[in-house]
């Protein structure tokens, strides 16, 4: 996940990150200032999130409800998602903040949802 403001990448708001992932935290014993999270959705799907260098990396995201959590996080942060297919998915309102040329091959939607994320990852959007 990447957030841009005036063409520059900006760090994610960690208070927002923690608020979104806290209900799904599969390792709550980690310190409150952690930058790595292991989350588990109600359907048992899991993913690892790491915040580093202004980017949120998502490793091994399961299919299902985990994609909804990732979509919610991107929406709340105003961030775009670089999918494993190499396609960027952004909300329409972030278009004006992207560096020149970054949006040329991106997909823009009013809101990032689990369904739009899955469609972009599958190459059907």
Describe this entry's structure for a reader.
- The structure is a single chain.
- The chain has 125 residues and is α+β, with helices and mostly antiparallel strands.
- The protein has helices at residues 14-21, 65-77, 114-122, and strands spanning 3-5, 8-10, 36-40, 46-52, 55-59, 81-82, 88-91, 107-109.
- Strands 3-4-5 form a three-stranded antiparallel beta sheet, with no helix packed on it. A three-stranded mixed beta sheet has the order 6-7-8, covered by helices on one side.
- Helix 1 (14-21) packs antiparallel against helix 2 (65-77) and helix 2 (65-77) packs across helix 3 (114-122).
- The longest helix has 13 residues, at 65-77.
- The model has no long low-confidence stretch (mean pLDDT 92).
CA-CA gap between termini: 19 Å
Q: With helices defined by DSSP (H or I, 4 residues minimum), what is the helix count?
A: 3
The gyration radius over C-alpha positions equals 14 Å
What is the total tally of β strands?
Answer: 8
Q: What form results from the Cα inertia axes?
A: globular
Beta-strand level of the residues, as a percent range?
A: 25-35%
Descriptors:
alpha+beta, 8 strands, single chain, three-stranded antiparallel β-sheet, three-stranded mixed β-sheet, 125 residues
Structural topology:
Layout: E1 3-5, E2 8-10, H1 14-21, E3 36-40, E4 46-52, E5 55-59, H2 65-77, E6 81-82, E7 88-91, E8 107-109, H3 114-122
Parallel strand pairs: 7-8
Antiparallel strand pairs: 1-2, 3-4, 4-5, 6-7
